[in-house]
Amino acid sequence: MKTLFIAAIVASSLAAGIARADGDCQAKATAKNLHGAAETSFIKKCEKDSAAASAADSCKAKAADKNLHGAAQTSFVNKCVKDSAK
User: Fold this and answer.
1) pTM
2) Which of the listed residues 7, 14, 32, 43 has the most CB atoms within 10 Å of its CB?
3) pLDDT tens, 55-84?
4) At 68, phi and psi to the nearest 5?
5) CA distance linking residue 10 with residue 71, whole number of Å
């Protein structure tokens, strides 16, 4: 029982180290127990989604700087995100 507890602590520490080293997407793939092509595909999609969310946040900040509201803000953010994906 004690050995199992120590192994769990080591495994969780290792997983935390991987998460810091390789990013949140790698940690999520590990938690889902993905390997091979499924892991690669998951990580690529996760990183793409993360970049899109980051771009959206950046574009929302730019819209706020321009003091845009309502439809003008929505239009600006959508175009900004689309342009940043290119």
Assistant:
1) 0.58
2) 43
3) 999 999 999 999 999 999 999 999 999 998
4) -90, 145
5) 51
